[in-house]
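Internal QA ticket QA-208
Title: Verify multi-chain structure generation after dependency bump
Assignee: T.L.

Test input:
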Amino acid sequence: VPDAIRGSIGRRLRAAVIGGGGDAQIAATHRLAMRFDDAFDIVAGVVSSDPKRAVAEGDALNIARPYPDLATMFAAEARREDRPDLVAIMTPNHAHAAGCLASLDAGYHVICDKPLANSVAEATEIVARAKSRGLLLCVTHNYSGYPMVRQMRKMVLNGAVGPVHLVQVRYAQGNLGTPVMDGAARVAALRWRLDPAMGGRSNLLLDVGTHAHQLLDFVVGSDFETLAADLGPSLPGRTFDDTVMVFGQLENGARASLTATKAATGAPQILDIEVYGDKGGLIWRQQDAQSLTHCRPGAADSRLHRGMEKLAPEVLASMRNPRPHPEGFREAFANIYSAFGASVSARLAGRPDDTAPLLWPGPDYALRSLEFVEACMKSSDTRSWVRLREFGNGG
Amino acid sequence: VPDAIRGSIGRRLRAAVIGGGGDAQIAATHRLAMRFDDAFDIVAGVVSSDPKRAVAEGDALNIARPYPDLATMFAAEARREDRPDLVAIMTPNHAHAAGCLASLDAGYHVICDKPLANSVAEATEIVARAKSRGLLLCVTHNYSGYPMVRQMRKMVLNGAVGPVHLVQVRYAQGNLGTPVMDGAARVAALRWRLDPAMGGRSNLLLDVGTHAHQLLDFVVGSDFETLAADLGPSLPGRTFDDTVMVFGQLENGARASLTATKAATGAPQILDIEVYGDKGGLIWRQQDAQSLTHCRPGAADSRLHRGMEKLAPEVLASMRNPRPHPEGFREAFANIYSAFGASVSARLAGRPDDTAPLLWPGPDYALRSLEFVEACMKSSDTRSWVRLREFGNGG
Amino acid sequence: VPDAIRGSIGRRLRAAVIGGGGDAQIAATHRLAMRFDDAFDIVAGVVSSDPKRAVAEGDALNIARPYPDLATMFAAEARREDRPDLVAIMTPNHAHAAGCLASLDAGYHVICDKPLANSVAEATEIVARAKSRGLLLCVTHNYSGYPMVRQMRKMVLNGAVGPVHLVQVRYAQGNLGTPVMDGAARVAALRWRLDPAMGGRSNLLLDVGTHAHQLLDFVVGSDFETLAADLGPSLPGRTFDDTVMVFGQLENGARASLTATKAATGAPQILDIEVYGDKGGLIWRQQDAQSLTHCRPGAADSRLHRGMEKLAPEVLASMRNPRPHPEGFREAFANIYSAFGASVSARLAGRPDDTAPLLWPGPDYALRSLEFVEACMKSSDTRSWVRLREFGNGG
Amino acid sequence: VPDAIRGSIGRRLRAAVIGGGGDAQIAATHRLAMRFDDAFDIVAGVVSSDPKRAVAEGDALNIARPYPDLATMFAAEARREDRPDLVAIMTPNHAHAAGCLASLDAGYHVICDKPLANSVAEATEIVARAKSRGLLLCVTHNYSGYPMVRQMRKMVLNGAVGPVHLVQVRYAQGNLGTPVMDGAARVAALRWRLDPAMGGRSNLLLDVGTHAHQLLDFVVGSDFETLAADLGPSLPGRTFDDTVMVFGQLENGARASLTATKAATGAPQILDIEVYGDKGGLIWRQQDAQSLTHCRPGAADSRLHRGMEKLAPEVLASMRNPRPHPEGFREAFANIYSAFGASVSARLAGRPDDTAPLLWPGPDYALRSLEFVEACMKSSDTRSWVRLREFGNGG
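Actual output:
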């Protein structure tokens, strides 16, 4: 983590979690985010709404103090010196509000998955509660965490494109491009989302519409003042929304369009934002998340990237590796470590371990690389072809 | 982490580290890789070759048992029941060999940054020692940790392109594109690398040449049999290598070219591998690391991506998120968490906290998103333009 | 030109042109299109609405029989055996209707720049006239001439993506991103467009909106049944449209969004169309015009390209070079020829010619290339480094 | 064509051609290049080495004065006032030398396909002959005709990257990636190339190696001084070259690598050049031919494109359309014209014409577009949803 933030955190914060048991995908991302900069310890949690599963699954997640329900957790932790510094909420949407209110009432700062709630009324209540108690409340609109999105906001607010007159945002996924409810296989992951009681009246809007909207709101620093929208299912016979198409005017006077869909069958994740003013434009696409294009009439496009020295301080502070290495580099590195860890564990337990040769590079690779190094030196020194000594090709 | 690996690890492994104090960049990546899947705890370490700094800097890294030197650590840990399961080495290159040998002699499995050593002789000794003691030895050639690189290897070995006849690998960075030794500012990070006593006779080859070579070796499953190379500085007056250009023949008979340079001034990190056989080709570029192109004569290119269902099992097992979300997503998520953590820490300590509005989304965003959601619903329901209620644009 | 079409044309067709004098940009493209496949001769024309300029500028364009006005041209050509086979119209928009009607009344097939007219009423009259006289009428909606757009239409109609449920089209340019009417320099090119009497009430819609619409109509084979649109200027104080944002439902039931703007300041030409059905999606972007992406849930993306053997016959018939060479190749080739032609002309006229060394490769390049060839052979034969003989570096 | 060149040509030049009968692909590109800017008329030619075919195929190509052989052509044309201004040669390689020498001896300027000859000796003779007769000689190394390649050269020579220290060039095609000589189907197009008597000892080097080399030579303004190369077949059992890999030192002291292959099975055409100096780098890739990337340490990449106002004059003079429209636009435009031409020809000849609805946009598209235009206006004016009037979906 950037030194500025890392330094300002100091000791690891103690976190309690609500939700995230079983195989909830986004909860795993929340927990990884907490580990990423070595800034949080998850010390307690209620990871399921089912009290029995909550304790067992909390154990399985290596949580020191798993609890069966919120009341028990808040009561027990209140008595400890090392009680949590904050609560992180990663339940399905419909449980966000109750979790937030209970956590705030127990005196904890809160970081909650988005949307904060399934309605403005609930959200307003939560916000008021945090304010009245003087507690911090963060919602993980994670796209505003991309360094180049932060750079884009900074540049827009600094006037790099002049007064903004046009904004276009687009979010597309293919999850609902096929008649998903017919097949049993994929239903499980979608069940709560497509149940209005849990996923909200329009899960399409709550789940991805809010991402697209917050991205616009964050980058432009201006919200819609008026809009027209077309919302609904695009597949025949479907009863839940899969697509929204919006246009309107922002408070700053700019025209804006925003589309969000889960019916882009087979498409990659597409999330693009373009902002134009009378001096130029800024374009960010999540598929090329590590760069930002600044275009100006009659001039070369300027392609900002992570290797630049003149990024805004808060952008540099958001990049863990401003050198050439792209993000994703860490995931690859972790793959090596975790696979090696699996082999070490297998060895410790006396279990067989067949996958090692593929999943982590053994010393043969290191030896062959060094032979290559010395062969290159020899060839170059002698300006001749050289023959490498024989060496098994184990991998 | 993929369930298969996660499941096979079970309890967190206890790791001791050698190296990584101060601001060593790659060491931070090693430690993050250990946290990534919640699979390792760093319980002990010697993080500097300077005994005094070793303990202080180990403390600063939240390492439970920091030691001043290897002998002390190995002696002390030997007496513990909860002694480490393995040692992770992340020192400058010249210290790898001593660290490996000492760790192996102390009976630990080892995972070591690449290159394993600065010479074949040292590496051979280390490999023999691990073998004779029956210990695991992993070298973090991290490019083989990319899911699509693993998919590429799998496909090459399965004959997807037929017998391989041509391989081209290219690695380019710009770190040494300017006369770096003249300016004081950038020298620090490069000092040990450019000192042959520490960085090796050809740090260019040891530092990035080995990456390019191992990528070829891993993907193709065949090493160079003969080669010719041109190695040296490209900038006038420079005495250390910045570029190597190699061609030759692999053991499987294929022709191959490999270039690696740090003199590609201003260039992004470029790491490409292309493998061609008589049925087709496979192309992977690190700049688009999450896809793999399979081309065949007269046919559409097939672009494999993380959303596919038919990737090799070990590839799926390497992806933490096979859904649409790209890698880098986690870093953005972590930015939100860490910034929020900084604010919580500031609040706990009574410190002011000015950066919050930019660095983590407060509840205003959540409220505005929900207003947007309800405005879209209303507009769509009424097929009319709607006006959002006024709301402050705080951020 | 594809053999099928070329063969079916036989002798060059004789064309008369209306419009295109001076430096009208799109008219130069019309004329080049006529020369491209050696299929047309421009034998007559009225290239300006000003009778005096019409004859002089027609001469300058190497048109054999330039005329001062339409009446004169049609009367004179009616008496010739080698009268034109067709009329090509490339005037500003407001003159399309009169040109079409006069040409049809004179018995000519017509190919006309888009839009066919500035109103539905005029267009309906023209269409009826062509039909009643049994004459062919083509409108140069040129995006449907891209091979991969044709392939996309073919695949959509053949069910490659299943029944279409979602379509998104986007057109963006930056021409009107700045306050253009304030500066004198750029006004000239825009004058007729921004004068409602000539460019139509909404030149934005007529000029680029129709391109976006026809692309959707052509590819999907279905038009809007209902829609909502937001049309107007995005720059403050501007009185003419620069942006339209549309959503609605197509006749086939699909949801669709379409945006077209000239206010994307500094942006490249962006023209994208995406079509999704319940089996998959097809994506075409003009910036990568020579490929077409077919995506399907859970499968690798298929990237169709010009080197494929299984493209639809009418697509292959649209590509002049189905081999690896990309389009644009021809423009580069023509640059060499035309620059050499300029030098030949200069030599013939005894004029000096300074630009040659840059603009066309002289024989020194050929000599050096051949020396390179022989040096490579020698090096490879001898597996040794070789030294090229000294040769001047003239260029 | 750029005004400067177009203006300097004046009347169309009269050209005689040698070669290009039948279905020779590159000859069609030569002829199109001559028509592109309306700068040449092909008035005479010997299009085949077979006298009988030469006249018939010349007729089929609409060449006014086709001849059976060179002697006859040069003798006959010598007697005409309107004799050619130049000769354009587009035969297989082995006939270049004889064609050039005969044309020069007959007093003509010459533009010849590359390589100028199959050996340095022949090429030297041709160059000397041109020089001694004071005639112009151009070789169509067409990659130097790309505007951005010209811009790159200009910038390199102007010091944009500082003194050049590293150059990397790569050319890859897949034509010879499969055992082509086994199948009869593809042999025809390759026969002369793979016959050393016609294609040269190493057609790989002569055909594409020279392209890669000239691109380097042109852009850098410096040739190899020393080099090492590996040349040969990559497919087992093959006797002709398909791959060359070269590294060496340029006259200016820079290190350089160059690879050229036709064994990149299934690959797209890849032609890349990268040039690095101590101030930065320039990167051009043919697959994105219309842009040029300028990278500098610590700064945003600058992406030069055709819409810029500050390109070098000779670059602007090489672009027929400096506005947003990309190259390839013209080919699409020509597709519309030629297909319409085919329909007009069919109508004139009373032939049926089934392909029209796909290949050229009929007036229905124009009508529907205008209806769309008016519907958008109405919707926007009324801020309401509108319904388009019913209209047949003919296409």
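Spot checks passed. The interface with chain D takes residues 228, 293-294, 298-305, 307-310, 383 of chain A (CB under 8 Å).
Status: verified.
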